[in-house]
Write a structure and sequence with these properties.
- By secondary structure, this protein is α+β, with helices and mostly antiparallel strands.
- It is 47% helix and 33% strand.
- The chain has one domain: Roll (Nuclear Transport Factor 2, Chain: A), CATH 3.10.450.50.
- A 6-stranded mixed sheet has the order 2-1-6-5-4-3, with helices on one face.
- A hairpin with a 6-residue loop joins β4 and β5.
- The termini are far apart.
């Protein structure tokens, strides 16, 4: 009889351990899948920003604008002004940077991409323009959404350093 009680306890302990291992495996798989999905989104978002830099450095403002959501709901803030809409943002870029000399050579650095969900993220970083006579630079915070055609910036808050 003592043998049967010990056998029963042993089976119960084995069952509990098996359930714990199964639960940990499921949670680990979910966490790994989420990390993997976040990493994939981060890579795609960085690719959008890299494409913007390449377009800018080729003097291609319309190409640069492909990183933005083409919508009247796009919000762009800089220089103490709030602009609403893709077209208004495009026009501001075209008027402020109407020559390659004014555009200079753009770079982004210290990028931090924070994926919030499968369709939303935010990004923090530094921007830097190298031009013949000056070197404007500053920081930006972007809010991005994933659309059918990929990740797009829906809100850009950019500031210049003194």
């Amino acid at each position: 009889m003592v043998f049967d009680k010990n056998r029963s306890r042993f089976r119960s302990a084995i069952s509990i351990i098996a359930m714990l291992i199964f639960g940990i495996s499921v949670l680990s798989a979910r966490a790994f899948g989420r990390i993997s999905a976040d990493s994939a989104a981060s890579v795609k978002i960085r690719a959008v920003l890299d494409a913007q830099v390449a377009a800018w450095n080729n003097g291609d403002i319309p190409g640069y604008m492909r990183g933005y959501w083409n919508s009247d709901s796009l919000i762009f803030t800089s220089g103490g002004a709030i602009r609403r809409g893709w077209q208004a943002t495009l026009e501001k870029y075209k008027s402020s940077y109407d020559t390659k000399e004014k555009m200079g050579e753009l770079s982004f650095s210290d990028l931090e991409v924070h994926v919030l969900s499968s369709t939303s993220a935010w990004c923090l970083g530094h921007w830097d323009l190298k031009r013949a006579n000056d070197n404007p630079h500053g920081v930006f915070t972007l809010i991005l959404r994933k659309f059918i055609d990929g990740w797009k910036i829906v809100h850009d808050h950019t500031s210049s350093s003194p």
